[in-house]
Amino acid sequence: MTQLVMGKSEVYQNALPELNPSYRLLLGPGPCNVDPRILRIASAPQLGHIDPEFFAIMEETAYLLRQVFQTKNEMTLCVSGSGFSGAEAVLSNLLEEGDTLIAGSLGFFSGQIVEISERAGAKVVNLATELGQPLAPETLAQAFKEHPEAKVFATAIAETSTGLWQPLEELERITHAHGALFVVDAVCGLGGVPMDVDAMKIDACYAGSQKSLGALPGLAPITLNDRAVKVIENRKKPVQTYYLNLHKLHRYWNGDHTYHHTACSNLVYTMREALRISLEEGLEARWKRHQLNGEALRAGVKALGLSILTQPGYELPVLTAITLPEGVDELAIRNGLLNEYQIEIGGGFGALKGRLIRIGLMGYNSCRKNVDTVLSALEHVLPRSGLQPAAGAALAAADAIYKAKT
Ligand SMILES: Cc1ncc(COP(=O)(O)O)c(C=O)c1O
Questions:
Q1: Is 349 in the pocket of ligand 1 (CB under 6 A)?
Q2: 156 CB within 6 A, ligand 1
Q3: Which of 152, 273, 305, 343 could form a disulfide with 101 if both were Cys (CB 3.0 to 4.6 A apart)?
Q4: pTM of this prediction?
Q5: Are residues 333 and 213 in the same domain?
Q6: Which residues contact 82 (CB under 8 A, 6 or more apart)?
Q7: Is the CB of residue 208 below 6 angstroms from any atom belonging to ligand 1?
Protein backbone atom coordinates (compact mmCIF):
# COMPACT_ATOMS: atom_id res chain seq x y z
CA MET A 1 0.00 0.00 0.00
CA THR A 2 1.27 3.49 -0.82
CA GLN A 3 2.38 5.26 2.34
CA LEU A 4 -0.04 7.99 3.37
CA VAL A 5 1.69 11.33 3.67
CA MET A 6 -0.47 13.96 5.31
CA GLY A 7 -0.30 17.31 3.57
CA LYS A 8 0.68 15.87 0.16
CA SER A 9 -2.76 15.69 -1.36
CA GLU A 10 -1.69 14.07 -4.64
CA VAL A 11 -0.29 11.07 -2.71
CA TYR A 12 -3.31 10.93 -0.41
CA GLN A 13 -5.84 11.00 -3.25
CA ASN A 14 -4.22 8.09 -5.05
CA ALA A 15 -3.45 6.02 -2.00
CA LEU A 16 -6.53 3.84 -1.70
CA PRO A 17 -8.93 2.19 -4.13
CA GLU A 18 -12.70 2.54 -3.91
CA LEU A 19 -14.06 0.41 -1.08
CA ASN A 20 -15.66 -2.86 -2.11
CA PRO A 21 -16.57 -4.79 1.07
CA SER A 22 -17.10 -8.55 0.91
CA TYR A 23 -20.58 -10.00 1.02
CA ARG A 24 -21.12 -11.76 4.34
CA LEU A 25 -24.04 -13.79 5.54
CA LEU A 26 -24.36 -12.28 9.01
CA LEU A 27 -25.54 -15.12 11.23
CA GLY A 28 -23.89 -13.86 14.39
CA PRO A 29 -25.48 -12.09 17.33
CA GLY A 30 -26.22 -8.99 15.22
CA PRO A 31 -25.96 -7.01 13.07
CA CYS A 32 -27.87 -9.15 10.59
CA ASN A 33 -28.31 -8.69 6.86
CA VAL A 34 -31.16 -6.32 6.20
CA ASP A 35 -34.03 -6.45 3.73
CA PRO A 36 -32.93 -4.84 0.42
CA ARG A 37 -35.74 -2.31 0.98
CA ILE A 38 -33.74 -0.95 3.90
CA LEU A 39 -30.55 -0.54 1.89
CA ARG A 40 -32.52 1.20 -0.84
CA ILE A 41 -34.09 3.74 1.50
CA ALA A 42 -30.70 4.33 3.13
CA SER A 43 -29.53 5.87 -0.13
CA ALA A 44 -32.53 8.22 -0.51
CA PRO A 45 -31.74 11.97 -0.51
CA GLN A 46 -30.61 13.32 2.83
CA LEU A 47 -32.70 15.75 4.83
CA GLY A 48 -31.33 18.10 7.44
CA HIS A 49 -31.99 17.27 11.06
CA ILE A 50 -34.21 20.35 11.49
CA ASP A 51 -36.03 20.13 8.16
CA PRO A 52 -39.83 20.10 8.71
CA GLU A 53 -40.03 17.15 6.29
CA PHE A 54 -37.66 15.23 8.54
CA PHE A 55 -39.69 16.14 11.62
CA ALA A 56 -42.72 14.48 9.98
CA ILE A 57 -40.62 11.36 9.29
CA MET A 58 -39.47 11.30 12.93
CA GLU A 59 -43.08 11.53 14.11
CA GLU A 60 -44.09 8.71 11.76
CA THR A 61 -41.18 6.59 12.99
CA ALA A 62 -42.21 7.13 16.62
CA TYR A 63 -45.81 6.26 15.66
CA LEU A 64 -44.67 2.97 14.06
CA LEU A 65 -42.36 2.28 16.97
CA ARG A 66 -45.28 2.52 19.41
CA GLN A 67 -47.04 -0.18 17.39
CA VAL A 68 -44.03 -2.49 17.43
CA PHE A 69 -43.40 -1.92 21.15
CA GLN A 70 -47.21 -2.25 21.55
CA THR A 71 -47.47 0.80 23.73
CA LYS A 72 -49.32 4.09 23.97
CA ASN A 73 -46.32 5.69 25.66
CA GLU A 74 -45.81 9.22 24.44
CA MET A 75 -42.11 9.10 25.29
CA THR A 76 -41.11 6.73 22.50
CA LEU A 77 -38.16 7.63 20.30
CA CYS A 78 -34.81 6.51 18.90
CA VAL A 79 -31.57 7.48 20.60
CA SER A 80 -28.80 8.13 18.06
CA GLY A 81 -26.47 5.35 19.05
CA SER A 82 -26.36 1.57 19.39
CA GLY A 83 -28.25 -0.54 21.96
CA PHE A 84 -26.11 0.49 24.92
CA SER A 85 -26.88 4.16 24.25
CA GLY A 86 -30.52 3.23 24.91
CA ALA A 87 -29.50 1.43 28.11
CA GLU A 88 -27.49 4.41 29.26
CA ALA A 89 -30.27 6.88 28.36
CA VAL A 90 -32.93 4.96 30.28
CA LEU A 91 -30.87 4.06 33.34
CA SER A 92 -29.04 7.35 33.80
CA ASN A 93 -32.27 9.37 33.54
CA LEU A 94 -34.14 7.15 36.01
CA LEU A 95 -31.36 6.80 38.57
CA GLU A 96 -29.91 9.35 40.97
CA GLU A 97 -26.97 9.28 43.36
CA GLY A 98 -27.65 6.79 46.14
CA ASP A 99 -30.64 5.03 44.52
CA THR A 100 -30.73 1.25 44.68
CA LEU A 101 -31.14 -0.84 41.54
CA ILE A 102 -31.55 -4.61 41.45
CA ALA A 103 -29.96 -6.08 38.33
CA GLY A 104 -31.02 -9.36 36.80
CA SER A 105 -27.64 -10.17 35.21
CA LEU A 106 -28.22 -13.08 32.88
CA GLY A 107 -24.90 -12.87 31.05
CA PHE A 108 -22.58 -10.33 29.46
CA PHE A 109 -25.18 -7.94 28.05
CA SER A 110 -27.72 -7.62 30.85
CA GLY A 111 -24.61 -7.76 33.07
CA GLN A 112 -23.67 -4.31 31.78
CA ILE A 113 -26.72 -2.89 33.56
CA VAL A 114 -24.56 -3.12 36.68
CA GLU A 115 -21.77 -0.85 35.43
CA ILE A 116 -24.09 1.57 33.67
CA SER A 117 -26.18 1.98 36.85
CA GLU A 118 -23.15 2.34 39.08
CA ARG A 119 -21.80 5.04 36.78
CA ALA A 120 -25.16 6.79 37.18
CA GLY A 121 -24.54 6.81 40.94
CA ALA A 122 -26.74 3.87 41.97
CA LYS A 123 -26.00 1.15 44.49
CA VAL A 124 -26.46 -2.10 42.63
CA VAL A 125 -27.69 -5.41 43.99
CA ASN A 126 -26.41 -7.83 41.37
CA LEU A 127 -28.43 -11.01 40.89
CA ALA A 128 -26.16 -12.88 38.50
CA THR A 129 -27.52 -16.19 37.24
CA GLU A 130 -25.56 -19.24 36.24
CA LEU A 131 -24.86 -18.80 32.52
CA GLY A 132 -27.71 -20.15 30.42
CA GLN A 133 -30.11 -20.26 33.38
CA PRO A 134 -33.02 -17.87 33.93
CA LEU A 135 -33.44 -15.67 36.98
CA ALA A 136 -35.80 -17.34 39.45
CA PRO A 137 -38.62 -15.15 40.81
CA GLU A 138 -37.78 -16.27 44.38
CA THR A 139 -34.30 -14.78 44.02
CA LEU A 140 -35.79 -11.42 43.09
CA ALA A 141 -38.39 -11.62 45.88
CA GLN A 142 -35.58 -12.24 48.39
CA ALA A 143 -33.56 -9.31 47.03
CA PHE A 144 -36.54 -6.97 47.45
CA LYS A 145 -37.03 -8.28 50.99
CA GLU A 146 -33.42 -7.37 51.78
CA HIS A 147 -33.53 -4.08 49.83
CA PRO A 148 -37.07 -2.69 50.14
CA GLU A 149 -35.67 0.73 49.18
CA ALA A 150 -34.86 -0.52 45.63
CA LYS A 151 -36.16 1.94 43.06
CA VAL A 152 -35.58 -0.08 39.87
CA PHE A 153 -35.33 -3.70 38.80
CA ALA A 154 -33.72 -4.13 35.38
CA THR A 155 -33.04 -7.22 33.30
CA ALA A 156 -33.21 -8.46 29.69
CA ILE A 157 -35.89 -10.43 27.90
CA ALA A 158 -33.30 -11.85 25.49
CA GLU A 159 -29.73 -12.39 26.71
CA THR A 160 -27.65 -12.65 23.57
CA SER A 161 -24.48 -14.01 25.19
CA THR A 162 -26.19 -17.21 26.39
CA GLY A 163 -29.24 -17.49 24.12
CA LEU A 164 -31.56 -17.15 27.11
CA TRP A 165 -35.22 -16.12 26.87
CA GLN A 166 -36.03 -14.77 30.31
CA PRO A 167 -39.67 -15.07 31.43
CA LEU A 168 -40.75 -11.69 32.77
CA GLU A 169 -44.26 -12.11 34.14
CA GLU A 170 -43.40 -13.07 37.72
CA LEU A 171 -40.47 -10.64 37.85
CA GLU A 172 -42.82 -7.82 36.87
CA ARG A 173 -45.35 -8.78 39.53
CA ILE A 174 -42.72 -8.84 42.28
CA THR A 175 -41.14 -5.57 41.13
CA HIS A 176 -44.44 -3.70 41.12
CA ALA A 177 -45.56 -5.26 44.41
CA HIS A 178 -42.55 -3.44 45.88
CA GLY A 179 -43.34 -0.17 44.11
CA ALA A 180 -40.19 -0.27 41.97
CA LEU A 181 -39.79 0.45 38.27
CA PHE A 182 -39.61 -2.48 35.86
CA VAL A 183 -36.96 -1.89 33.17
CA VAL A 184 -36.30 -4.30 30.31
CA ASP A 185 -33.44 -4.63 27.81
CA ALA A 186 -35.05 -5.72 24.53
CA VAL A 187 -32.00 -4.98 22.35
CA CYS A 188 -32.04 -8.47 20.91
CA GLY A 189 -35.67 -9.34 21.57
CA LEU A 190 -37.75 -6.59 19.95
CA GLY A 191 -39.14 -7.85 16.65
CA GLY A 192 -38.15 -11.46 17.35
CA VAL A 193 -40.00 -12.55 20.50
CA PRO A 194 -43.38 -11.44 21.84
CA MET A 195 -43.03 -7.98 23.34
CA ASP A 196 -46.08 -6.07 24.45
CA VAL A 197 -44.76 -3.24 26.56
CA ASP A 198 -48.13 -2.12 27.92
CA ALA A 199 -49.57 -5.59 28.59
CA MET A 200 -46.28 -6.68 30.17
CA LYS A 201 -46.41 -3.54 32.38
CA ILE A 202 -42.87 -2.55 31.46
CA ASP A 203 -42.10 0.94 32.76
CA ALA A 204 -39.09 1.55 30.54
CA CYS A 205 -37.65 -0.47 27.68
CA TYR A 206 -34.67 -0.05 25.40
CA ALA A 207 -34.00 -1.92 22.18
CA GLY A 208 -31.58 -2.07 19.27
CA SER A 209 -31.98 -1.55 15.55
CA GLN A 210 -29.60 -4.15 14.15
CA LYS A 211 -30.91 -7.38 15.60
CA SER A 212 -34.41 -8.88 15.46
CA LEU A 213 -35.83 -5.57 14.28
CA GLY A 214 -33.77 -6.02 11.12
CA ALA A 215 -32.52 -2.46 10.58
CA LEU A 216 -28.99 -1.04 10.37
CA PRO A 217 -26.93 -0.46 13.52
CA GLY A 218 -26.90 3.02 15.02
CA LEU A 219 -30.29 3.65 16.60
CA ALA A 220 -31.68 2.57 19.96
CA PRO A 221 -35.48 2.64 20.21
CA ILE A 222 -36.69 3.38 23.72
CA THR A 223 -40.07 3.80 25.39
CA LEU A 224 -41.02 5.02 28.88
CA ASN A 225 -44.47 5.14 30.45
CA ASP A 226 -45.92 8.04 32.44
CA ARG A 227 -44.75 6.57 35.71
CA ALA A 228 -41.15 6.46 34.52
CA VAL A 229 -41.46 9.92 32.98
CA LYS A 230 -42.68 11.29 36.34
CA VAL A 231 -39.61 9.83 38.04
CA ILE A 232 -37.44 11.75 35.57
CA GLU A 233 -39.48 14.96 36.00
CA ASN A 234 -39.13 14.73 39.80
CA ARG A 235 -35.37 14.26 39.86
CA LYS A 236 -33.66 16.14 42.66
CA LYS A 237 -30.73 16.97 40.36
CA PRO A 238 -30.72 17.31 36.56
CA VAL A 239 -29.38 14.26 34.78
CA GLN A 240 -25.62 14.47 34.39
CA THR A 241 -25.55 13.65 30.65
CA TYR A 242 -26.41 16.26 28.01
CA TYR A 243 -26.49 13.92 25.02
CA LEU A 244 -28.77 11.33 26.60
CA ASN A 245 -31.07 13.77 28.40
CA LEU A 246 -34.45 12.18 27.74
CA HIS A 247 -36.42 15.36 28.34
CA LYS A 248 -34.48 17.10 25.56
CA LEU A 249 -34.57 14.05 23.27
CA HIS A 250 -38.32 13.71 23.71
CA ARG A 251 -38.81 17.38 22.88
CA TYR A 252 -36.72 16.95 19.70
CA TRP A 253 -38.56 13.78 18.61
CA ASN A 254 -42.11 14.28 19.83
CA GLY A 255 -42.49 17.86 21.00
CA ASP A 256 -41.74 21.14 19.22
CA HIS A 257 -38.62 19.56 17.63
CA THR A 258 -36.21 21.97 19.28
CA TYR A 259 -32.69 21.12 18.17
CA HIS A 260 -30.88 18.75 20.48
CA HIS A 261 -28.31 16.98 18.28
CA THR A 262 -27.77 16.20 14.59
CA ALA A 263 -29.77 13.04 13.95
CA CYS A 264 -28.96 11.13 10.76
CA SER A 265 -32.00 11.32 8.47
CA ASN A 266 -31.01 8.30 6.39
CA LEU A 267 -30.66 6.11 9.45
CA VAL A 268 -34.12 7.17 10.62
CA TYR A 269 -35.51 6.28 7.15
CA THR A 270 -34.10 2.77 7.61
CA MET A 271 -35.75 2.43 11.01
CA ARG A 272 -39.06 3.62 9.59
CA GLU A 273 -38.77 1.01 6.81
CA ALA A 274 -37.80 -1.80 9.21
CA LEU A 275 -40.84 -1.00 11.34
CA ARG A 276 -43.08 -0.93 8.26
CA ILE A 277 -41.72 -4.34 7.22
CA SER A 278 -42.40 -5.77 10.71
CA LEU A 279 -45.96 -4.47 10.74
CA GLU A 280 -46.66 -5.59 7.17
CA GLU A 281 -45.64 -9.13 8.09
CA GLY A 282 -47.61 -8.84 11.33
CA LEU A 283 -45.96 -9.10 14.73
CA GLU A 284 -47.49 -12.50 15.55
CA ALA A 285 -46.42 -13.94 12.19
CA ARG A 286 -42.93 -12.52 12.69
CA TRP A 287 -42.54 -14.08 16.14
CA LYS A 288 -43.81 -17.41 14.76
CA ARG A 289 -41.30 -17.27 11.90
CA HIS A 290 -38.45 -16.70 14.34
CA GLN A 291 -39.76 -19.48 16.58
CA LEU A 292 -39.93 -22.00 13.72
CA ASN A 293 -36.49 -21.27 12.31
CA GLY A 294 -34.91 -21.22 15.77
CA GLU A 295 -36.43 -24.60 16.54
CA ALA A 296 -35.24 -26.08 13.24
CA LEU A 297 -31.72 -24.75 13.84
CA ARG A 298 -31.57 -26.24 17.36
CA ALA A 299 -32.73 -29.62 16.04
CA GLY A 300 -30.03 -29.51 13.37
CA VAL A 301 -27.34 -28.46 15.85
CA LYS A 302 -28.20 -31.38 18.14
CA ALA A 303 -28.11 -33.75 15.15
CA LEU A 304 -24.57 -32.49 14.48
CA GLY A 305 -23.69 -33.90 17.90
CA LEU A 306 -23.46 -30.52 19.63
CA SER A 307 -25.38 -29.29 22.64
CA ILE A 308 -27.20 -26.09 23.52
CA LEU A 309 -25.92 -24.05 26.47
CA THR A 310 -29.31 -22.68 27.47
CA GLN A 311 -31.56 -24.48 29.91
CA PRO A 312 -34.20 -26.40 27.89
CA GLY A 313 -37.43 -24.48 27.65
CA TYR A 314 -35.68 -21.11 27.84
CA GLU A 315 -33.91 -21.06 24.46
CA LEU A 316 -34.21 -17.92 22.38
CA PRO A 317 -35.44 -18.45 18.83
CA VAL A 318 -33.27 -15.59 17.58
CA LEU A 319 -29.93 -16.67 19.05
CA THR A 320 -28.66 -20.20 19.61
CA ALA A 321 -25.71 -20.64 21.98
CA ILE A 322 -23.87 -23.87 21.23
CA THR A 323 -21.45 -25.48 23.69
CA LEU A 324 -18.37 -27.06 22.18
CA PRO A 325 -16.70 -30.18 23.54
CA GLU A 326 -13.53 -29.62 25.57
CA GLY A 327 -10.49 -28.92 23.37
CA VAL A 328 -12.41 -27.92 20.23
CA ASP A 329 -11.09 -24.66 18.80
CA GLU A 330 -14.10 -22.40 18.31
CA LEU A 331 -12.07 -19.84 16.37
CA ALA A 332 -11.14 -22.50 13.81
CA ILE A 333 -14.84 -23.24 13.29
CA ARG A 334 -15.75 -19.58 12.96
CA ASN A 335 -12.82 -18.93 10.62
CA GLY A 336 -13.77 -21.94 8.50
CA LEU A 337 -17.29 -20.58 8.05
CA LEU A 338 -16.05 -17.07 7.36
CA ASN A 339 -13.25 -17.91 4.95
CA GLU A 340 -14.93 -20.68 3.00
CA TYR A 341 -18.58 -19.69 3.12
CA GLN A 342 -18.56 -15.96 3.96
CA ILE A 343 -20.75 -16.79 6.95
CA GLU A 344 -20.19 -14.83 10.15
CA ILE A 345 -21.25 -16.43 13.42
CA GLY A 346 -20.39 -15.37 16.98
CA GLY A 347 -18.09 -16.76 19.66
CA GLY A 348 -18.41 -16.75 23.45
CA PHE A 349 -18.06 -13.70 25.71
CA GLY A 350 -16.31 -13.31 29.07
CA ALA A 351 -16.40 -16.60 31.00
CA LEU A 352 -17.73 -18.33 27.87
CA LYS A 353 -14.87 -17.17 25.62
CA GLY A 354 -13.57 -20.08 23.56
CA ARG A 355 -16.32 -22.43 24.75
CA LEU A 356 -19.24 -21.41 22.58
CA ILE A 357 -20.33 -20.60 19.10
CA ARG A 358 -23.47 -18.49 18.69
CA ILE A 359 -25.77 -18.42 15.69
CA GLY A 360 -28.27 -15.63 15.18
CA LEU A 361 -31.38 -15.88 13.03
CA MET A 362 -32.75 -12.37 13.30
CA GLY A 363 -35.13 -10.30 11.22
CA TYR A 364 -34.59 -10.75 7.48
CA ASN A 365 -32.07 -13.53 8.18
CA SER A 366 -34.53 -15.77 9.99
CA CYS A 367 -35.42 -18.11 7.12
CA ARG A 368 -35.14 -21.75 6.15
CA LYS A 369 -32.49 -21.07 3.52
CA ASN A 370 -30.14 -19.70 6.18
CA VAL A 371 -30.87 -22.55 8.60
CA ASP A 372 -29.98 -25.13 5.95
CA THR A 373 -26.97 -23.12 4.74
CA VAL A 374 -25.34 -22.76 8.14
CA LEU A 375 -26.04 -26.38 9.12
CA SER A 376 -24.50 -27.65 5.86
CA ALA A 377 -21.46 -25.41 6.27
CA LEU A 378 -21.00 -26.57 9.87
CA GLU A 379 -21.24 -30.20 8.83
CA HIS A 380 -18.43 -29.55 6.39
CA VAL A 381 -16.21 -27.59 8.77
CA LEU A 382 -16.61 -29.53 12.06
CA PRO A 383 -14.59 -32.66 11.09
CA ARG A 384 -11.46 -30.50 10.90
CA SER A 385 -11.91 -29.84 14.60
CA GLY A 386 -12.08 -33.56 15.32
CA LEU A 387 -15.89 -33.77 15.39
CA GLN A 388 -17.67 -36.35 13.24
CA PRO A 389 -21.25 -35.30 12.49
CA ALA A 390 -23.34 -37.92 10.70
CA ALA A 391 -23.69 -36.93 7.03
CA GLY A 392 -27.04 -35.33 6.27
CA ALA A 393 -28.38 -35.72 9.81
CA ALA A 394 -28.57 -32.00 10.57
CA LEU A 395 -30.61 -31.07 7.52
CA ALA A 396 -32.88 -34.06 8.06
CA ALA A 397 -33.52 -32.98 11.67
CA ALA A 398 -34.30 -29.42 10.59
CA ASP A 399 -36.50 -30.74 7.80
CA ALA A 400 -38.48 -32.82 10.30
CA ILE A 401 -39.28 -29.64 12.26
CA TYR A 402 -40.41 -27.82 9.11
CA LYS A 403 -42.57 -30.78 8.10
CA ALA A 404 -44.12 -31.08 11.54
CA LYS A 405 -44.73 -27.36 12.07
CA THR A 406 -45.74 -25.95 8.70
C1 LIG B 1 -29.18 -8.00 25.11
C2 LIG B 1 -28.25 -6.95 24.62
N3 LIG B 1 -28.17 -5.79 25.28
C4 LIG B 1 -27.34 -4.80 24.89
C5 LIG B 1 -26.53 -4.94 23.79
C6 LIG B 1 -25.65 -3.83 23.36
O7 LIG B 1 -26.06 -3.35 22.11
P8 LIG B 1 -25.07 -2.55 21.14
O9 LIG B 1 -23.91 -3.46 20.84
O10 LIG B 1 -25.94 -2.29 19.96
O11 LIG B 1 -24.68 -1.34 21.86
C12 LIG B 1 -26.57 -6.14 23.07
C13 LIG B 1 -25.70 -6.35 21.90
O14 LIG B 1 -25.44 -7.45 21.46
C15 LIG B 1 -27.45 -7.15 23.49
O16 LIG B 1 -27.52 -8.31 22.83
A1: no
A2: yes
A3: 152
A4: 0.96
A5: no
A6: 208, 209, 210, 217, 218, 220
A7: yes
